[in-house]
Amino acid sequence: MARPVDPNAQYRIKPHSYGGNTYASTQPPSIDPETGKKKYRYIHWGKIDKDRRFIPGMQFYLASPEERARLIFPEDWDMSEAEKLTGPRKPERPACERDCQNRLYGDAWLLEQVAEQTGVRQDLEVVFNGNHEIVDDILTLAMFPYLTTFTFNRVARWQRAVKAPSSRALTPAAITRLSQSITEQQRMELLKLRAQRLGKDELCAVDSTSRTAYGDSLADIRWGKNKDRLPLPQTTEVVVYTLSSHMPVYYRTFPGNMPDSRSLRVILTDLEHAGFKDLALITDRGYETLANLEHSIRCGQALVLRAKTGQKEAASAIEELGDFVVRPEGMTIDPRARICHKQVDLDSTVAGKRSDRLKLNLYLDPIRRGLELVELDIALSLQKDALDELLKNGEMLGDAATIRRDFCYYKVRTDPAARMIQSFELNEQKVAKARRRSGFFALITHAVNFDALQAYDAYRLRDEQEKHFQQMKDLMAADRQRNWSEEGKTGRLLILFVSLILSSYVRHIWKSTQLHDLFSSSLEILDEMRPIRLIEHANRAKVITPFVGAQAAICEAFGFAIPAGCAPISTSQWQTRRKRGRPCKKKRLRKIYSTGK
């Protein structure tokens, strides 16, 4: 009779000696797809020292709590190191495994409180099934480039000087394994949780930026038009930034050669699947196409879209204004913004559905118009002089595309065989259009209750997102894709998304409070908090050095409670505090005479 099969055999931990080390291992069965035979492979969860103490490894760190609970360890093993990983931890006092430490703590403490305030830590714990170690690792990696402007190869060295959320050394190998373990499903779960924290009718800006890449094996690398003007392959990163909560809420990567107009439908589908509702999106001219506008009308998507003045509706509205000197008769001037504005209703029917909330907002900037007219006259003069010189000297020209680009306001007739100019004349119609449209710009709004000035003010908020991209590339060392695998790219983008949430919140608090008068930038806030230290000694309580000066003002602006015993004592408290020792003789006698005691 065969021996009965143990259903828990694949979860029983056994020692396995390999390479001079003893590992705590399991041997789960698997089927070889080629031979169809059952085979067993070792999974190393950590090491066993000579005292039979279990030391967790990377596999144990990255495992979920449910997977750890299924493991069956021998009863005589020392599991104290594994118990430290799953123990509770207060936000202001991270766990420490080393004794007698004196490390910088203030800036990391501040970002930890930001993670709690914005709900990022709570959302990450839900996404990773309560695995506190992975959450601490992600937060540490998200903080590091913002605090140091260095790449991830210095994280382990930085952890020796700074008390970071993660208690284990994040070496390059550990970072690679962590980033490759993050999946697309976890990305979508995080976006769904972030969507639940948004209010109704949030105003969001949609924009993209190009990032060059070092790895040559990524599928999204294409030779697009690099915004940094570098001859390197690139990817396109899209971020949706909420202008009400002042932080990013969505991200996605696209191939480097994909134009913005082709990506809008994918973005809208992702936002719908992630649970984002009633968002009003603000986009630039790169997303403005008739197909995108019709799709937004069909699905009822609220939009504030930058339109080109050469578009049919905008050009017709400009022509209807007639001739003018400073301000057209049909436009209203706003003293605050110093621009003229007008709103026009547009009739549109898409797939039998008529939209009565589609509007064209036309604007005229008189100062900009004067500058553009001057620039137009200068361009006409320079192009004419260049054409006269080429015709006089009989010089050879480039291809037709180059001629159209360099002499855009002239009709140039050439000899195709000799590639020389025969004659040229001014393109009166094109020059007239340029003069007519100088100083004008337009916005198209759909399904939003904005007048022309409200739409203008909303579109101007996109400057926040441009600052957000600048901060990402310059201050956070994220101007390059520093990974070579698709799995690693997914994980690193999630870490970068978390980092952008933390930095955007710090920047918003700096701009909207009295901290803007105390510090010239949001980075100075972190510099001010950095000297605070966490001192740890063996078998003694941890000590945080006092918060002094502007450090207390920073906590007040953010709404964070200063750790117990670290707050500064006010002058009034010192004055009301009774001095030690016997009171002087005069005060004692005065008290006796007044009370009789």
Radius of gyration: 33 Å
Low-confidence stretches: 88-97
Task: Write down the oligomeric state.
Answer: single chain
Percent range of helical residues = 40-55%
Task: Tell me the β content.
Answer: 15-25%
Shape: elongated
Short précis:
The chain has 597 residues and is α+β, with helices and mostly antiparallel strands. The radius of gyration is 33 Å and the shape is elongated.
Explain this structure to me?
With 597 residues, the chain is α+β, with helices and mostly antiparallel strands. Helix content is 42%, strand content 20%. Strand 9 and strand 10 form a beta hairpin. Helix 4 (106-118) crosses helix 18 (486-512) and helix 8 packs across helix 18. The protein starts with 13 loop residues before the first strand and ends with a helix. The model is unreliable at 88-97 (pLDDT under 50).
Features:
single chain, 597 residues, alpha+beta, four-stranded antiparallel β-sheet, 23 helices, 23 strands, 42% helix, elongated
Any chance you could write out the topology, listing elements then pairs?
Blueprint: E1 14-18, E2 21-26, E3 29-31, E4 38-40, E5 43-48, E6 54-56, H1 58-62, H2 65-70, H3 80-85, E7 101-104, H4 106-118, H5 120-127, H6 132-148, H7 155-161, H8 172-181, H9 184-195, E8 203-213, E9 234-242, E10 247-255, H10 260-273, E11 280-283, H11 290-299, E12 302-307, H12 312-320, E13 332-334, E14 339-345, E15 348-350, E16 353-355, E17 358-364, H13 366-393, H14 400-406, E18 410-415, E19 420-426, H15 428-437, E20 440-446, H16 452-460, H17 463-474, E21 480-481, H18 486-512, H19 515-518, H20 522-529, E22 533-536, E23 543-544, H21 550-558, H22 571-576, H23 585-595
Parallel strand pairs: 8-11, 8-21, 11-12
Antiparallel strand pairs: 1-2, 2-5, 3-4, 5-6, 7-22, 8-9, 9-10, 12-20, 13-14, 14-17, 15-16, 17-20, 18-19, 22-23
Helix pairs in contact: 4-18, 5-9, 6-18, 8-18, 13-15
